[in-house]
Structure prediction request, 218 residues.
Amino acid sequence: MAKLTKIILVDDHPIIREGMRTIIEREPDLIICAEAEDAHDALSAVDATKPHLAIVDLSLKSTSGFNLIQDLKSFHPDLIVLVLSMYDEMTYAERVIRAGALGYITKQNATDNIVEAIRCVLQGQIYVSEAVSSQLFQQMVDGKLPASDNPTSALSDRELQVYQLLGEGKSPRQIAEILTLSVKTVESHIERIKAKLNVGSGRELTRQAMEWVIRSEH
Prediction:
């Protein structure tokens, strides 16, 4: 009998988890051993069930998927992480791989490709789209990312998190709670984002961030 590969699903949308469970468990050697909707529950479930793979969304209930990836790799360095997200792959894939994930797949492509992505990362290989693979190869050759028309490419990982949460309608205080930062630190990040994106006011930045989130989801 083939050894079962245990997988934890971390996503704050029950319908997404149900859909992924249905697809994944069609495979005789793959089993969902736990589900979680935020970082705290995910870390507890990993401790309890010892999965081989974590499939993690970047936007979680009251927490940051980025922070969770870093915590998982810190506390469970052998755990393989695959990111499943609605957000634009060209913006996030390189960042999450740098954070410790082995792959990135969009929810739009997950129905057809999630099993392929799982098989790939379980073999220790990086899973991204062909376009992102070319970008990562170019980075390796040049030592830097190629020029991008996406203004968010100028933002640091933390600034991008703040920008995303602004776009989701979160206030600086809510962002501080989600990212476990002080409100003052979040406000400092917002000022740097405004400078990098050449935005004059907080209201305009929030509007721009909301438009960016909507575009990223489609």
In short: The first strand starts at residue 5 and ends at 10. Residues 39 and 203 are 30 Å apart (CA to CA). The two ends are 42 Å apart (CA to CA).
